User: Fold these one by one.
Assistant:
Number 1:
Amino acid sequence: MDHAANLIDALRRRDAGLWPAGNVAPDRLGWIEVPRRMADEARGLAAWADTVDQPRVVLLGMGGSSLGPAVLESVLDAGTGPDGAGARRGERRHLEVCDTTHPATVGAVDLSDAFILVSSKSGTTLEPEVLLDHAWAQVPDPSRYAVVTDPGTPLAALARDRGLARCFENPPDIGGRYSVLSYFGMVPAALLGYDVAALCERALDTDLEEAAGLGMAMGEAALAGRDKVTVVVPERFGAFGLWVEQLIAESTGKQGTGCVPVPTVEPEDGPDRHVVPVHFDEVEDLGEQFYRWEVATALCGHVLAIDPFDEPNVAESKHNTNEVLGALPLPTVPDEGAAGTLDWLAATVRPGDYVSVQAYVPFGQDAALEALRRRIRDHLEGMAVTAGYGPRFLHSTGQLHKGGPDTVVALQLVSRDPGPVVPIPGKPYDFATLIAAQAIGDHRSLVAHGRRVRRVAVGDLGEIG
């Protein structure tokens, strides 16, 4: 039996000895068997989804609760129509993911004809909590809500107390970033009309030894200095990069090491790149790729000798945010002008670095954000550059930025215009204050770790020069 087969055998046996002593794996390996459970429950999920009358779903979540569903929606939206592969016939229900606290985006979410799905593993995550409070103030109708959470959480209790339409209690031994093939991903999939059984069966047919080989190659490349895992996906499946970015970054970025995921839809090369093309033929291939990358990332952790299931640095920015909110009004934080940013980056980066563009701006600027990412990449002669919306990235790549290698150069972009006043029921602050506090808290965390960071206030992403 070769090394890959041995690793898969140990993984199937839930052998926590694959990772360093003291790891949390014994409480985080439920994802290995969950596709079988979801395949068995597929018919019931579809029957429940058919009872939902609303033509739209708004999902309130963050991190592992939101990125998988965002992929599932995006792939269908980029297809040929509502009768495309993977969807039941008839007019397709659409899903809008709200995983931001920017008031311009939150205030624009239309709940008038929406079924509202609230997803939070812990049931205490701040963003879903305040987004639910905002939604309930507008739509206090329990028949239009369902939640996905772990058993016994405050969110599960709230669902019972308010008599919400459904509470899906997920197996508690599954971490958020490994949860896409559990209720966290498959409930939204059912609402979108996916054949959940087909997705899960495809996952169960994954070539596990190939997946182990992928993980070992990622880890070995990182140890050899090629730690920028450049995941190249087809244009239609571009959103898959958001999901795999979180999985890799949060799982491996710790103890000063890790793989830096660079999702892209076009080839990118460089001496520090480890390029992995990902191929899709049909939407059900998502099931295989989700599972393939979960296996690969877990075993990459074995090669790097880190625990791929913990997140030791994630709480830092949350703590700093709470400190800022507990001492209002907001402190004044100096920011730089947009002009000269490219020159600052060129003077700051070193060989082997990467740039992280952290945009605390309204959603709907994907094309502009990607254009900025490419402009910085080209200005820096092909250096790895990643880009994401804040505070979304705090629950995905944030762990890597603080706990991974000291090769990150962070460009924090904040809105010059704070946006509309959108109150948060029961809180002494509004959404504009919250996202500003999150940006300040993250900036403090980056500085505390000695990271190189530039904070720029912008009205438009095109201002950066």
Number 2:
Amino acid sequence: MAQIKQWYDQWGFWGNLTAAVTPIPYKVFTIASGAFHFSFGGFLLASLLGRSLRFFVVATLLYWWGPSIKAFIDRYFNGCAWAFMILLVAGFLVLKILR
């Protein structure tokens, strides 16, 4: 538990943000945020950004492509969400290395 607490102190915002966007069970991170006394402001910001991104992207896709995209989203959402997060993290790593 001490190791998990240390990880949560260091990466809690990014963990919450990742869980809010990807298929990782978000409830686990909400409970962990309380258990490990993660800052409410950090949790709220990660939740607002992540959940908004997840649902607004789906809503935008449905708006532009209509019902034809729904089957694609239902079938491939988890894989697309993971790919998005991997690309996002890789992009930040590349920017960090280039600095």
Number 3:
Amino acid sequence: MTALTLIGCALGAAIFFLIVQIRPPKPDPLAMLARFDAAQTPPLVAARSDASPRGTAANAETKLGRWVSQELARRGIGYTSLRQDVALNGQSFDATIGRKVIVAGLGFLIGLITTVFLTVAGLQLPLGVPVVVSLLFAAGFFFIPDFDARTAAAKRRKEFKRALSAYLDWVSLQMSGKAAAEQALPEAAKIGSGWPLALIRHTVTHATRSGQDVWVGLTELGERIGVTPLRELGTLVQLVAHDGAQVRDTLSARAASLRAEELADAEGTAGKRDQSMLMAQILLGVGFAVFLGYPAITNFMRI
């Protein structure tokens, strides 16, 4: 009984640490912009060490992830999609890779403790089954951070595209008033206050101050966070940047395309919800029919 209690406590502790690793704290939008800036500008001085347990654990997690990512890069595994997702979520790629490794280790530990618990409880398992089960747990938990990052990034991309369509309309209106694209881009980014426009404003300002072409900066931003319309827009505008009218028409057309895409997504989501409600109504009707018909069928069977 004592062994089962200790094994249960160990299993509960492993699950608790697993949940903590899977659900990292959500970053503030300003912190996200700071990380983008830090990724673009190499640090001049080393950051001060954090003596708190959370800071020490985060540093160890980042160092572990950096080593693993370097080893994966040597073997041609770049994790491009995951890099884009964690960048859009304002998280560190190295910390995410370290979290994946830690979660996989916790999964292995949970699988091993579970099989030991079943063995102590009296279930006879063939030789080698605990190791196989533990490896399966580790492999499954290794991809949980990917799913979490992908889900959060998908929501943020929708929000970013919605703001991007409005931003392109504002730029087009600024250019209709005889403003050049170099002037219209930063002026339009000052209108909104949400994190997507703050990110665009940061990118435009950084490109302007560093002497980089603004459209090149926006293209790199679209590539870094995995927003295809922004990347394609930057590439397309660079081809017609010499003609302000063509640039304005391109921006208006892309804004209309983004709105049409958003409308199609909304209609698709509404259709899925309608189907879900229909299935729920059908199941409710079937359950009610069984509830009414069961007494009659039971009485008929007794005759």
Number 4:
Amino acid sequence: METIKGLQAGDFSAEEITKDCLSEIEEKDAKIKAFVTVTGELAIAEAKKADVLIKNKGAKAWAHRPLLGVPFACKDNFSTKDITTTASSNVLKNYIPPFESTVTTRLRGAGAILLGKTNMDAFAHGSSTETSDFFNTANPWDLKRSPGGSSGGSAAAVAANMCVFAMGSETAGSVRGPASWCGVTGLKPTYGRVSRYGVVAMASSTDSPGPLTKSAADAAKVLQVIAGQDDNDATTSSSKVEKYLDLLEKYSLKGKKIGRPKSYFEIDLEPGVKKLVDESLKTLAGLGATIVDMDLIDPKYSIAVYTILQRSEVSSNLARLDGIRYGNPRTEFGFEAKKRMMLGAYTLSSGYYDAYYAKAQKVRTLLIEDLKKAFSEVDMIAGPTMPCVAMKLGESEKSPMFGELMDVLNEQSSIAGICGISLPCGLAEGLPVGMMLMADMFREEEILGASHVFQKETGYHKDIYSIKF
């Protein structure tokens, strides 16, 4: 992470880099609207404390605080003690949590400095950040386009250089999609690799917190901090947390097999997207990987399964939100939340449970088995992250299934709980395109390593520095 190298070299202080980020927010965010809340005074106070530690301990200051002095932004569905946490919804617009999420506890404990909370689709219901109850976030590449969602504010903040990294969460595409459309790196860890404690729940069986960063190396650095078992979340895994950053420099693609599923390229892809991803696969082959043509179940089946399961879990999770506890009545729910709750309640109701929910769970098992078979033959699977480049604001209103259609290539991996990453692979019509790499559960080192090798070779992840405002 270049910021840490600069801090260690004395090129700038934590206070200086924090103030620089806050200046970027002040200058750009009136146009982009990535932030719901900016915690400027708190950030500067934490930066000053970081500088004292650095002065007193020198290089040893990072031994137990590996992100010391690094400013970050956080999606507004992570609970932050004494800081408003809204999930970009009117229901929670005045909610100030009395506790801290595990992810933000670990990040701040590692010395990272919270700049503020970012905009999102309300309750993470969407793929464009246009269902936010507050305002739309714009894509830094083109202010008339969507940054993707639901972690659109976090992706836009990273792309616009308003923070060093940001936290997002993904249920099916909500980290990887915005990463693709904003030209940044977005990591969805294995389900259970990172604690969900303190994250406003959307679909509890697929929600996965993950970082949005400027490089795969930065993603590895952040994952090292936030990964691991948590007593507050029974779904977290006791699987060993690798030293991801150390593994990157040793990683080689020689001998690795990367699957290219035909069904992921036969859907309605924009020509520029398909061209760039295929060219990127040739680059991976040139770096030593063997590209294997293979197939997976048609992605369209994942749409149906995900929609049923997600709506069902939404109806259950949002049932806990009431005006007595959170201050605003349920009439404050937006249209998208109401629609999802109604559909979920329907699929779980007597007489329809077996026809919809139970059947979807059976197909989910088939999708999981499909990926297990694939990973017995290849180390990773590659494909486009999104079927198109960033769409214009307002396009999401034309389809009630906009999010599911945009996230079609992400849904099977989310349903199965495996890990995935989106990394920039070039520009089509002046807008970023993301390539997705997926690996089996708890094999994050594979996709991070392959991404790191690819980024060192191509430099596409640096295209964000060409954005002009």
